[in-house]
Design brief:
This protein is mainly alpha-helical. The protein contains 14 helices and no strands. It folds into 2 domains: 1-128, no CATH class; 160-264, no CATH class.
Length: 272
């Protein structure tokens, strides 16, 4: 990750510090002193509280690309260090998705794609409570940033780390309906994300992969040590997910119905 962050500083180094007030409300959202410091202090000296105020402040619907891309290397560096840069991790990179992501140069998009994949890999391999440790939220953060989540999902399917299998159990049990629709609050109106996630979780290849992983001794040993999820025992969740994955044709039927629902436009009520 350190090498990727260093590359980000190099790739985005062409952007200059903003000379005009930042695209953030300083009347009631962002401390004016922090806003001035973000423009006047060296980029690497900016800290978590600068970006938290900046990211959570009211802003225009379309973001100024040069401003966002100037701050991006330091934002990525703090994000990789586990700093909380927004009240919700899913929105940590939302300014990037609100404009600049559409006009990224190939080398800029490449380093961001590498960052996203490495961040996701680290999250699966070393989950942490609270800010990190929820791969679905990380996937949403990447999608909201305007980046492709497909390589991240492929890594999740390919890695045989039993911690990644535990994360799949959590996601399949809590985040997906039987039809593959997601109940996550930040995914409600994101049709592309819903479509991609539904196809992945209901794909026969995903289903077969995790059926195998759930039966591996290293996963069973780890599952025995997992703490309960509120009032739900983790082993009970494992059994429920295993039954869902091994039910003949269940996910295939759900995939067909889910895709049909996604592709069928809503009907318009006829007037009386």
């Amino acid at each position: 990750m350190a090498a990727i962050v260093a590359e980000a500083y190099e790739v985005f180094g062409r952007y200059a510090s903003p000379q005009q007030p930042l695209n953030a409300c300083v009347a009631c959202c962002m401390d004016p002193a922090l806003e001035a410091e973000m423009r006047q202090h060296p980029l690497r000296s900016l800290q978590r509280h600068h970006f938290y105020d900046y990211n959570c402040a009211a802003k225009d619907r379309v973001q100024p690309a040069a401003e966002i891309l100037y701050f991006l290397p330091r934002l990525l560096e703090l994000l990789a260090a586990g700093e909380e840069l927004h009240h919700s991790i899913e929105l940590s990179l939302d300014r990037l998705g609100d404009g600049p992501a559409e006009t990224l140069r190939p080398e800029e998009r490449a380093v961001l794609d590498r960052f996203a994949l490495q961040y996701f890999q680290d999250d699966l391999a070393c989950p942490q409570p609270g800010w990190r440790g929820d791969p679905v939220s990380v996937l949403l953060m990447v999608d909201i940033a305007g980046l492709d989540i497909t390589p991240l999902l492929e890594h999740w399917r390919q890695t045989d780390d039993p911690r990644a299998t535990c994360a799949f159990v959590d996601a399949r049990y809590w985040d997906f309906s039987d039809l593959g629709a997601m109940s996550h609050a930040f995914a409600t109106d994101r049709e592309r994300f819903q479509h991609t996630m539904s196809r992945w979780v209901l794909d026969p290849a995903t289903r077969a992969t995790f059926v195998d992983r759930l039966m591996r001794p290293e996963f069973e040993a780890l599952a025995q040590q997992e703490s309960d999820r509120g009032c739900m025992r983790f082993l009970t969740m494992v059994d429920a997910v295993f039954d869902r994955l091994t039910e003949p044709g269940a996910d295939a039927d759900a995939l067909s119905m889910s895709m049909s629902m996604l592709l069928t436009p809503p009907s318009t009520p006829s007037s009386a």
